[in-house]
Amino acid sequence: MIFCEKCFLDSEIIPIIHECGEIGECQICHSKNVYIYNTDKHDELTNLFEELISIFTPAILLPDTFPKSEIRMIKSELFSNWNIFNRRTESEIYGIVTKVCKERYEYSPELFDSPIGLKELYETDYIEEHSLLTTKTWEGFVESLKSKNRFHTHYINLQLLDKFCSYIRKPYKKGTLFYRGRISTESGYSKDDMGAPPNDRASEGRANAKGISCLYLADSIETTLHEVRAGAFDYVTIGTFELLEDVIVVDLKRINLISPFIFELDCREHAINKEHLNKINNEMGKALRRSDSPLDYVATQYISDFIKSRERDNKAVYAGVEYKSVMNETGYNIAIFDESLFKCTDVEVYAIKNITYNKQKI
C-alpha cells in the first residue's frame, strides 16, 4: 500500500514519511507530487503503530466486569480518540494499520478484527499511579478545589502534568507581535495604559487568581476585538505588543493532541488520561457568562499557576500559557506571567460599526 503525508495529522508521523524521501501519488487520497510511504518498501512506522496497538486487549480476554461501553474496534478507537489520521472513514484507517503492521496482523488478527479495550482503565492500582487526576474525574477535581483544598491539593499528579506540558512547549522568537484591546473613548488610551492591570486591580481570569497580575494578549486584531466583547458603536483601543526576548509557552490548546509516538512517551499512560487532557483543553477554551461564579476559573488557574511555578536554574521555564479563543474560533490567546517580556509599541482606536449575533434555540 502507498499512502502519503496528507493522510496524517500526527506531528511525529509526517516527518518520518518525509525522511523516506519518496515523491509520488497517494493510493488513499490520490494526492499527487507528495511525500509517500510504501509499506512494501518501508518499515519505519511499524514499531510505532505496533507499540500503540499493543496497549489494547481483545475483548474476549477482558474481565467480565469491564464496561461494554469501553469496548470497540481498533479502527473506531483510532478514528475517534486519537489525532493521528486525516482520513474520513474507519475503513481507510483499518487499511493503513493492517498494512503497516502486516506481520502483527498475521499472528494477532484479533487486535485488528475483533473488539478491544484498554483494561488498565479499570485497574485500581494502575489508575492510582498513572492517572493525572486522583479524583478520577475532572468534575471531582474542580469540586475538590472549590470546596475542600485550593492551595495544597493532592487531587492532581503534578509530576505527570509537568510531563504532559513538556510535550506541548511552543517557542516564540524575539520580535513576535501580539495584541491587547481595551474599550475606550474616541481619543483612546496611551501605550503606557495598555499593559496588564496592577496587582491591586487585577481581577480573576482564566490563568490568574484575583490580585495576581497577568498580561492577556491575542494573536490578531480580529481576535482582540472579539475578546473585549465591545458593543455596537463602542470604541476599542488596540495595543500592539512586541516580544523582547525568545520565550517558551505551554500550548494548552494542543494538550489533547499530543502524539502517542513521541520518544519515551508511555502510550498506555497517555491513553488512560486522554479524557482528562480533553477536559483541560475544553476548560481553557470554555466561555464564561457574566453570571458565572469566579470559582469556575479555579481549575484552570491552578494548572496555569503550576506552569508558572516551574523553574530551572532559578529562572522560569515557561513565559505563559496559550489557549484557544472563546470568542473567535480561528484565533488564540496567550496569558503572559511577566509583562516585562513585552513592550507596547503602538496603539490604534477602532470604532465598532455593527455586531452580528449567532443564535441557537435552547
Description:
By secondary structure, the protein is of the alpha+beta class. The chain has 13 helices and 15 strands. It has helices at residues 13-20, 46-53, 74-81, 90-100, 102-107, 110-113, 124-130, 138-147, 158-166, 221-227, 267-272, 274-284, 298-309, and strands at 2-4, 23-24, 34-38, 57-58, 116-117, 169-172, 177-184, 215-218, 235-243, 247-251, 311-312, 315-316, 320-324, 332-336, 342-351. The strands form 5 sheets. Strands 6-10-13-14-8 form a 5-stranded mixed sheet. The longest helix has 12 residues, at 298-309. The termini are far apart. 32% of the residues are buried.
Oligomer: single chain
Terminal CA distance reads 48 Å
Q: How would you sum up the global shape?
A: globular
Could you report the average pLDDT, rounded to the nearest whole number?
92
| Broad structural category | alpha+beta
Number of folding domains?
2
SS element count, helices? 13
Rg result: 24 Å
Low-confidence stretches: none
Strand percentage: 15-25%
Major sheet strand order: 6-10-13-14-8
Order of helices and strands: EHEEHEHHHHEHHHEEEHEEHHHEEEEE
Proportion in helices: 25-40%
Draw up the topology in text.
Elements (H helix, E strand, L loop, with lengths): L1 E3 L8 H8 L2 E2 L9 E5 L7 H8 L3 E2 L15 H8 L8 H11 L1 H6 L2 H4 L2 E2 L6 H7 L7 H10 L10 H9 L2 E4 L4 E8 L30 E4 L2 H7 L7 E9 L3 E5 L15 H6 L1 H11 L13 H12 L1 E2 L2 E2 L3 E5 L7 E5 L5 E10 L11
Parallel strand pairs: 10-13
Antiparallel strand pairs: 1-3, 2-3, 4-5, 6-10, 7-9, 8-14, 9-15, 11-12, 13-14
